[in-house]
Every structure is written in C-alpha cells, then in structure tokens.
Amino acid sequence: MPLSGQTYKAACVKELVRRAADNDEAAWNALLDRYSGLVWKITRSYPLLFHDAQDITQTVLCNLAEYLTRLRTPERIGAWLATVTHNECRRHLRIHGKVQIFPAEDLDSPDHRTPESLSLVAEDVARVRSALNQLDSPEREVAHVDVYRPGLPRPRQPDWQG
C-alpha cells in the first residue's frame, strides 16, 4: 500500500473504480481507504460542528457509491470528490448558517435561568425589600441609594466578616 503522500497512477485508479462499480468489495474498500481522508480533511476545514462534518462526509461517500458508474473520468476521482465535498459543505453552511463557536469554559458554566433559580432570585429580592422597609428613615435612604445605584463603590467588608 503506498504512503499517503504518494500519487496513484491514473490506470490503477481507473481500474479500482471499474472494479468497485462491478461490486468488488475489496476495490470499494481500497477507494474508501484512499479518498475518505481527503473528504474528511476538506469537510473539517469548514466551520462545521463535528457531527455535521461526519454527516457531510457520509453524504459525499454515498454520492460516490451512487455515481461510481457514471463518472466520465474515473481517474480524476480525487478531484471529483474534492469538488463534491466543497459543494456539500457550502450548501450546508448556506442552509444552516455558520456555527458560532463558544469557548469551552462557557459551555460548562451553569445556566442560571432555570425556573427554580429565577424563583430563588425573586424570593431574595422580596427579602431585601422587606428588610429595607423595616429600616428607619436615614438608614433606609442610604440603603436605597446603595441598592438602586449599584455603580457606587461598595463599602469594604471587615476581614472578620468574610
């Protein structure tokens, strides 16, 4: 088996395509071994989700199986696969749009917008308002300024309060 960087002679590729079209499983597997990496590399060069790239690769290889008997120049199967792969990737991006990649650290952060967490926040706000209403007038005024103008610097907590 040739190294991955070596080129294949046109007659050899043409013969493999002919045999694969005649349902020769070994020839089909040889074509897949030679060209599935090319399809995968092209697909992964696009901003696609991993599973979308897998689906596109599978679609392209299924197209190869379907059109194998109709290739006009079977010795140029690599170029045909590259063109089909690029077209499939562009079609997918046109239909589904580009994928917005999120930093990994954002993916693991909890979502605080659950109904339970919103309910807990509402309870906390109600407790703070109730506590503010129980304060005497001068302290209540200062607390309202602190609560409703959060841009003001907070007073420094003593070390013993944590």
Highlighted features:
mainly alpha, Rna Polymerase Sigma Factor, Chain: A, rod-shaped, disordered N terminus, 162 residues, 65% helix
- What gyration radius follows from the Cα positions, in whole Å? 32 Å
Approximately how much helix is present in the residues?
55-70%
Within CATH, the superfamily of one domain carries the name RNA polymerase sigma factor, region 2, helix turn helix motif
Q: Return the average pLDDT rounded to an integer.
A: 81
- The rounded distance between the terminal residues' Cα atoms is 68 Å
Share of residues in strands: under 5%
Shape: rod-shaped
Structural description of this entry:
Helix 1 packs across helix 2, helix 2 packs across helix 4 and helix 3 crosses helix 4. It is built from 7 helices and no strands. The relative contact order is 0.08. The radius of gyration is 32 Å and the shape is rod-shaped. By secondary structure, it is an all-alpha fold. The protein starts with 9 loop residues before the first helix and ends in a 14-residue tail after the last helix. The longest helix is centred in the N-terminal third of the chain and has 20 residues. The N terminus is likely disordered. It has a domain of 112 residues: RNA polymerase sigma factor, region 2, helix turn helix motif (Rna Polymerase Sigma Factor, Chain: A, Orthogonal Bundle).
